Amino acid sequence: MSGLIPQTFIDDLLARTDIVDVIGSRVQLKKTGKNLAACCPFHQEKTPSFTVSPDKQFYYCFGCGAAGNALRFIIEFDQLDFPQAVEQLAQSLGLDVPREAQQYQRQAHRFEVLFEITKQSATFFQQQLFKPSGQSAQHYIQQRGLSATILKQYAIGYAPAGWQNLLEHIGQSPENTQHLLTTGLVIENPEKQSIYDRFRHRLIFPIRDIRGRFIGFGGRVLSPNDKPKYLNSPETPIFQKRQELYGLFEARQQRRQLDFLLVVEGYMDVVALAQNGIPNAVATLGTSVSQEHVTRLFKTVKEVIYCFDGDEAGRKAAWRALETTLPFMQDGYQAKFLFLPEGEDPDSLVRKEGQQAFLTRLKRSSQSIADYFFQTLCEQVDIQHMDGKARLAALAKPFIEQLPQGVFYQLMLGHLAELTGLSEQALSELSQVPSQLTTKTSTESVPKQSTQYLEKKITRHSAKNFVSASKLSVSLTPAQVAVYLLSKYPEFAEQVEHSDRLANDQSEHTRLLAVMLKLLKDNPQASVGHLIGELYNTPLGNIYAAVLNRPPPQTGQASKEVFLEALTRLQQQLNLEDTYQELSQFKNLKSMDDSKKEAFMRAFEQLRQSKR
């Protein structure tokens, strides 16, 4: 894209950015008074001299003199040029980079128009709540015991029955209609050439961003036969669900200094808790807890309590929240989990037992993230036996490795050592094995090689014969070697002509390699920073981060030779898998002729040997 980036956009970008988030995602920062400190990432030092000022949104190193704002840090740390750094920072905020001042001014004006439309819509819904047509909504809020104060605080309203009430109120000019379509408040039916209101005969919960602007809406049915129970605004230029938390603006308005935030699942949970004297609840908007959510939560408070139903769905949602939260657990932060009795949600429970009893439940029944983590994993294994301890270590270690280095990391590692009987040194050596360990909390078995390795370690430790075994020499798979070297030498992508087969493989690392090759071929100037930015917050991005954090391949050959050799080995393995799958289509060996039978057995044996 050609053209200069307007200075007004750059200023706005920096105003929306917290330099602590930018640097903290790349460097381990520690609080030192008003500022944060770390060992400088731009020169070697043992004593931290690198300082980040949240107030001034500026960093400075007293050792080497490195200094600047968030953009300068991205340029220097990720080794990007200025336009790439702006693109990356804008992408993290969900913004498009304009290339001329007029274009940016048009975009800014467009956003202001959309905010005005959502504001007018919120006012309309509030006005409809107490009109004769809103009797069913009035009856519902009376049943729920919602006060006028709470209704006003959360701007709760009512969307009347009918197809074009909001459309007629805003005005059906082409411009207004287009704005309503953009914000998702009306829906277009091309076949019938009609446009109608998205929300009809529903209680309306407006969603506000951290600045209090209306960005979206949630609607709850008032008739038990209507479906779905909750209907949400779609994602729009001003509303991204993974970045917003319902009730956060209201919570901060009530209490500027929040002790903790309680994360629940629904709008009514947030509102009912506020009605009963617990105003610091927030809800995700129909999505799992995201990294953006966790960043915003910990930016607001030091303690987060996740509140879920005690059923299987609630447990799964809680585990996903744990996985997302672990990498953010710096020393001083707390995350807890509260599971409610069967058939209860925060709304029903707080109305049944009241504020004090609910707060007591939060205090006494919430599990720390560490307790919930180990309890969940221990339920899947029998730690009374050697193979159970091995499996526990195999399950837990990859998660613990995601924690920031610090006291909490050491405590988690120490507790795992107590449960397994392994020394922390022995557990640390497992960081060389993660390519073969599962990190899923399911009934999948840990690969036999990994389990045998762990059992051997446990046996040696129990017999007190283990003193300091040499580090296990476990080679990376061909795909992992290729991924690692491609990160260091992006130009190697030019050596690969065809990568279509890689994208269809079941192995995550092979698919990751295929994605990297495509990204690098489409953008030959891309760096590691570009790859990380493209893969950020994706399943493959997590796999990529794990590979980058591993020890490098130990070889005595030139890097390009190792890369090409890895690709050759990988291609051979894929060919073997194709042959094996093709021959596996036969119902049994007896249905094969002798040549196919021999090829099948040879492919099976070679495939087994290649995966050792």
From TrEMBL:
Subunit-level organization: Monomer. Interacts with DnaB.
EC category name: transferase
HAMAP family in UniProt: DNA_primase_DnaG
Protein family per UniProt: Belongs to the DnaG primase family.
Enzyme Commission no: 2.7.7.101
The reaction(s) this protein catalyses: ssDNA + n NTP = ssDNA/pppN(pN)n-1 hybrid + (n-1) diphosphate
Span of domain Toprim: 259-341
Role according to the record: RNA polymerase that catalyzes the synthesis of short RNA molecules used as primers for DNA polymerase during DNA replication.
Higher taxonomy: Bacteria, Pseudomonadati, Pseudomonadota, Gammaproteobacteria, Oceanospirillales
Gene Ontology terms, MF aspect: nucleotidyltransferase activity
Cited Gene3D superfamilies: 3.40.1360.10, DNA primase, catalytic core, N-terminal domain, DNAb Helicase, Chain A, DnaG, RNA polymerase domain, helical bundle, Zinc finger, CHC2-type domain
Domain comment, as recorded: Contains an N-terminal zinc-binding domain, a central core domain that contains the primase activity, and a C-terminal DnaB-binding domain.
Pfam families on file: DnaB_bind, DnaG_DnaB_bind, DNAG_N, Toprim_2, Zn_ribbon_DnaG
Protein name: DNA primase
